[in-house]
Design a protein that fits this description.
Layout (H helix, E strand, L loop, with lengths): L1 H6 L1 H25 L16 E7 L6 H9 L8 E8 L5 H7 L3 E5 L7 H12 L6 E4 L5 E2 L3 H10 L4 E8 L6 H23 L11 E4 H7 L7 H11 L5 E10 L5 H32 L3 H11 L3 H18 L4 H21 L4 H6 L3 H17 L18
Parallel strand pairs: 1-2, 1-4, 2-3, 6-8
Antiparallel strand pairs: 4-7, 5-8, 6-7
């Protein structure tokens, strides 16, 4: 065949090998991430003083419950306080937060629309106070009682930034919340628990994270469309990492409609791509100059395809073999099956409920959208604006 002769066996070997290597890497992280210490109580007495900050924009439906739950944490009351920065709110967020017992900063001046600006303005007001770390919670977070105890234990071990486990609280509200709950389980095991256990940096999820005061004074809260990812890149380039503590748990709502979800995902994707592009050279230079595990993993993440794109590549691979060279068809099919099985294996290892396995039936919709959107935004960068995701009330669309 002309195609076979012009293509050559070597190219097919490399394609199959690279996709198999990426898949094996993800399985390895998944296995490491599910081999975790599940002590019921922290081995340290509470020591650190925390300021819990909840940035909120028009969150009157959920803010009182979040504040009440945060104030009821099983941690010495003298060692933490709950604050709300109500950023340009036009509803009753301020009143509801104060009624629930929060210290409220009603921010009406300055630019709005980004969490980082609201947090920075709040931090300037409290930086002279005596505290060790800031905990950031989303306005709809349902934080579990031992959250601060495990954050304190991680800081006592010497960590500077600690990401807790995010869990979707509303998987029963539709196919997208259910699929998001399934994805979070697998991604937490692979990217946060697995990478962190090997010395790399967990992801900054924007919620349920504790950051030492000195780190905020040095690096701020981020300064881009996706400020959480921007801050993570700064942390890694500064020689630090984000540790992961799966026992510090907070439940959050996922967008209930695909309309809201697409807007949110597009913003995350575009912001992440821009930050990766901006920092890729610096990460490579740092890797060659002073190689560390956080930098190594960050470099690997910056060049690997997303799981959505990997799934499409793995699905195309057997077809490519049928067209070009059938000798590699068996290997291509094994790679495809391994990629296809990965989220199911992740749910099994994390003991997920049956409903989340059923949610994976909707995964092809998201995978196709995610992969095509990633390619589109890479070729034609756009400026996605911030849009509030409805919490607690009925979403439109």
């Amino acid at each position: 065949m002309v195609y076979k002769e012009s293509w050559g066996d070597a190219q097919m070997v490399w394609i199959v090998f690279i996709l198999a290597l990426i898949t094996a890497y993800l399985y390895g992280l998944l296995w490491v991430g599910t081999r975790r210490d599940d002590l019921e109580t922290p081995p340290y007495d509470p020591y650190h003083r925390f300021l819990i900050i909840i940035p909120a924009h028009n969150e009157e439906w959920v803010i009182a419950g979040t504040v009440t739950q945060a104030r009821a944490l099983t941690y010495p009351v003298a060692k933490f306080s709950v604050h709300v920065v109500a950023d340009h709110c036009s509803d009753a967020t301020v009143e509801r937060a104060r009624e629930a017992g929060a210290i409220v900063f009603d921010r009406k001046t300055g630019a709005g629309g980004t969490k980082a600006k609201a947090l920075s303005a709040w931090f300037e007001r409290v930086r002279s106070e005596t505290f060790d770390a800031v905990v950031i919670l989303d306005a709809d977070a349902q934080v579990q009682s031992g959250f601060l105890r495990w954050m304190d234990a991680a800081l006592t071990r010497g960590e500077s930034i600690v990401q807790g486990q995010q869990i979707i609280s509303n998987p029963e509200k539709g196919w997208y919340p259910a699929l998001t709950a399934a994805m979070y389980r697998v991604e937490n095991a692979i990217h946060n628990s697995g990478v962190s256990a090997l010395g790399g940096s967990a992801r900054h999820m924007g919620d349920a994270i504790a950051i030492r005061k000195g780190i905020i004074e040095e690096l701020g809260f981020g300064d881009s469309l996706t400020e959480d990812h921007a801050l993570r890149q700064k942390i890694i380039l500064s020689g630090r990492r984000i540790a992961y503590e799966h026992r510090s748990r907070a439940l959050n709502e996922a967008a209930q409609t695909w309309t809201d979800a697409k807007i949110q995902r597009a913003r995350w994707m575009q912001g992440t791509q821009k930050e990766d592009h901006r920092n890729r050279r610096a990460l490579f230079r740092t890797l060659f100059r002073d190689p560390t595990a956080p930098v190594l993993f960050a470099v690997v993440e910056s060049v690997l395809p997303s799981f959505s794109l990997l799934t499409i590549l793995a699905a195309v691979l057997p077809l490519l073999c049928l067209w070009l060279d059938r000798n590699f068809l068996g290997s291509a099919e094994v790679v495809f099956l391994a990629v296809f099985a990965l989220p199911f294996v992740g749910l099994v290892l994390t003991e997920a409920p049956a409903a989340l396995f059923r949610a994976l039936l909707a995964a092809p919709i998201f995978i196709v959208w995610r992969a095509t959107a990633a390619v589109r935004y890479s070729l034609f960068p756009a400026n996605a604006g911030w849009k509030r995701t409805p919490h607690g009330e009925r979403s439109d669309g």
